[in-house]
Specification:
Layout lengths: L2 H13 L3 H16 L4 H28 L20 H7 L3 H4 L3 E5 L6 H14 L4 E5 H13 L3 H9 L3 E7 L6 H14 L4 E6 L6 H4 L3 H13 L1 E5 L8 H13 L1
Parallel strand pairs: 1-4, 1-5, 2-3, 3-4
Helix pairs in contact: 1-2, 2-3, 7-8, 7-9, 9-11
The structure holds adenosine-5'-diphosphate and magnesium ion.
Length: 256
């Protein structure tokens, strides 16, 4: 490849928004020469590498904007610690067909069983697959919406929770809500209904949601929309947070 051609390809690639090609054209042509690559294989290599770089950049940017508390994956989840949880149920969710269907997923159970871990892992997988994601606790969402409402910016702020393809709402039920607050939650859930997925975690059963939302009618209206298309995963085991602590306490007791 002449220097002139190389320079022209770099300029054209830059104008076309193909920065990876602009940076690596010399390396690509060296590899093509070495492998005696045909034209189609060469073009295939260049385009697929450009796409991979672009996907990776979009994935990392998506994670940065998502406000996820961490980036744990399902590979890091020890299913043997929760024998009553069928791994297939969670792995089915990880295929993301519920996201494609704009349906919801609910992870229920007591503290420490890995509800947030699994919700985050599903969100990371969705982000990798190209979906936009956003993470919030229920309390943060309510607080932000209330502040925005008081400042006359509710519609604008609602957009934060309506735009992403996948909204993770963590910790439903930790704090009871007042009626006006529950109404803000209803607005988010009803506007997302059949438009985008919600992944929620809760330490409360659905029958306790009346207390959480301070109003049975509102709670029923929220549940009605959430549960119409929803995969529910209940995890009824021991807290992983206490695992090591309990082992230490038991060991110390044995020694004593
Ligand atoms: P929850 O949201 O149900 O209260 P978390 O998802 O926050 O629980 O889990 C608490 C901690 O324990 C996190 O650091 C999480 O990664 C870890 N954890 C929970 N369950 C498991 C598990 N089965 N295997 C590996 N780590 C787990
Ligand atoms: Mg949690």
């Amino acid at each position: 490849m002449s220097q002139l051609t190389g320079n022209r390809i770099r300029t054209t690639a830059g104008k076309l928004g193909l920065p990876h090609l602009a940076e690596t054209i010399t390396e690509f042509t060296r590899r093509a020469d070495e492998a005696k690559m045909g034209y189609l294989d060469f073009l295939d290599l260049v385009l697929s590498e450009e796409l991979a770089v672009r996907d990776d950049r979009r994935f990392r940017q998506g994670l940065r904007l998502s406000r996820l508390p961490h980036h744990k994956t399902l590979d890091e989840y020890d299913f043997s610690f929760q024998p009553d949880l069928d791994p297939r149920k969670v792995k089915d969710l990880a295929t993301l067909s519920f996201v494609e269907d704009r349906a919801n997923a609910a992870l229920l159970g007591p503290p420490g069983v890995g509800k947030t871990h699994i919700a985050v892992a599903l969100a990371v997988a969705a982000c990798r697959a190209g979906y936009s994601i956003y993470f919030t606790t229920l309390d943060d969402m309510v607080r932000n919406l209330k502040t925005a409402e008081a400042a006359g910016r509710l519609v604008n702020k609602l957009g934060t929770y309506l735009r992403p393809s996948v909204l993770v709402v963590d910790e439903v039920g930790y704090q009871p809500l007042e009626r006006a607050e529950a109404n803000l939650v209803f607005q988010v859930i009803s506007k997302r209904y059949e438009k985008g997925s919600v992944i929620l975690t809760s330490n409360k059963t659905f029958s306790e949601w009346g207390q959480v939302f301070g109003d049975e009618v509102l709670a029923t209206a929220i549940l009605d929309r959430l549960l119409h298309h929803c995969e529910v995963v209940s995890i009824n085991g021991n807290s992983y947070r206490l695992k090591n602590r309990l082992q230490t306490i038991e060991r110390d007791a044995d020694v004593a």
